[in-house]
Amino acid sequence: GALPPEFYIPEGFTFLILFGLPHLALARAALLGGLLLFMRALDGDDWRRPAVLAGLTWLVVGLAVPFYFGLLYALLGAWGLALWLRRRAFPLDFAKRALVAAGITVPLFAYYAVVFTTHPVFAAWSAQNQLPSPPLLHYVLAYSLLALPALPGARWAWLRARLDGRFALLVGWVVIALPLVYLPINVQRRLGEAILVPLAILASAGLTVWARAWARRQSGRAFRQRLIPAAVALIVVTSISSLLVWVGGFGAAQNPARPLFHPVEELTAFDWLNAHAPPDAVVLANTETGNALPVYANVRTYVGHGPETLNWQAKTEQVERFFSGGMTTEERQALYSDHAIRYVFYGPLERALASSPDAPAWADDLTLRYDEAGYRIYAVDD
What we know:
alpha/beta; 5 strands; 6% strand
């Protein structure tokens, strides 16, 4: 009953990030860039500068997506544990470098931990920002084409990890990914951030192992004749979901409709509010209208983006009751005063909720200030 993960979990599928999520792209670039710098810190005695640069780069990760600090610490822990198991000795040098690099991020992480657990607004936002992982079978189906060749790739990396500690990260990252995305927290699926990177590296290595074994059993010409179609087929199959998203984006652009496009008449009404409403005035509107309105006008909305609106579900129910005429006069007045509502926006999305679209009962208590092309804006009298 849900979409495949590759259509809605950008953390687990890079194409979705590149297609439309710049803040996650920044976090991903900083995470990987920091890991590359940290790998330099593992080589030789002059490790302090690259370790410090890695830590500074990881600060960008936390500024873009705060809880990725937890993921970063888990990755470093899995990396160190993999080294410990492979070399059968505690990786003291690795731990020392990791403490320096990760230690730079600890003050910001501690600040986030305090704010998100003690500040009532951020605590409420965190509680309602629910991003659970899909059933395990969904992940299995989504990653199976990469996971199968990644198995021999993991053996290849594990063998090299004894002499080169960088390869241990690939194995540790993939192994820890499944427990991370099912931790009992509210942002489960986001902890799969960048898992496609080590998985793709291991899959590429595994395919190379298979290709070499295949080549030894065949002549060069026969091998090339079979390898190229197989490689093309694999690329096509693994690219289907990305192609569908890409084509879907073109389709949405060619057929203007909500939520990507807004009617000119609606934007004109937004412009009127921007010109006439006092800064930060609160506007009551449908959820979809409320999500877009602050982009165009210097106002606040009673309800807008889901997790970003405190008590979003209760407020959505209140909006529906209001526009459907289900509130008494006393309830409406309490709503206005309790939330400092100054205007009521009434367009097609709000009309769809109304039992009497042309003559809503609540309009009798307000002053009509704007009425153009099916859009009305009412002022709440002081």
